[in-house]
Amino acid sequence: MWHIKKSLLEDIIQSSKNYLPDEFLCFLGSNTQKQEIIEIIFLPNQSDESSTSINMNAFPSDATIIGSAHSHPNSSILPSNADKKFFKRFKINIIIGLNKFETRIGFYNEKTNKIEVKIID
After folding, report:
1. I need a labelling partner for 105 at 20 to 30 A (CA). Which of 6, 32, 71, 77 fits?
2. What is the DSSP letter of 99?
3. By the 8 A CB rule, do 27 and 53 touch?
4. Which is nearest to 58 in space by CA: 46, 50, 70, 69?
């Protein structure tokens, strides 16, 4: 089972809030031997209230990048059709669903199946 530090997840949530009303996108660096997400990787991207995109031709070739995290400002944590295509590239994908009243988190694999990720201190 993959792990993520609570403080790292909180950083992703706070960054998502900072981007409101637009979507937020980052990538997840890992220690694959420990199955632990250890860093957030920011790459240039474009976002608005309903989508975010990145030029994948400019994506670095780095085997430690195993995932993505992005926000849905409408609070949904269900993957959109565009998310499903994008998720195929990564082992772990996080959706942060935000609105004024709540924050929800969904973890998905490359097949868009929900997965468990242990949150550690």
Report:
1. 32
2. -
3. no
4. 46
Residue 13, Cβ neighbours under 10 Å: how many? Answer: 18
Of the candidates 95, 87, 86, which has an alpha carbon nearest to the alpha carbon of residue 23?
95
Beta bridge partners of residue 41, listed in sequence order: 27
Indicate the domain borders of the chain.
1-46+63-76
State the fold for domain 1-46+63-76. Answer: Cytidine Deaminase; domain 2 (3.40.140)
pLDDT at residue number 59:
79
Q: What is the pLDDT of residue 8?
A: 98
Cα distance between residue 67 and residue 116, in whole Å: 14
Phi and psi angles of residue 55, each rounded to the nearest 5 degrees, phi first: -80, 105
> What is the block-wise mean pLDDT of the chain (121 residues), using blocks of 10 residues?
97 94 94 96 82 79 93 94 95 93 95 97 90
Per-residue model confidence (pLDDT) at position 103: 95
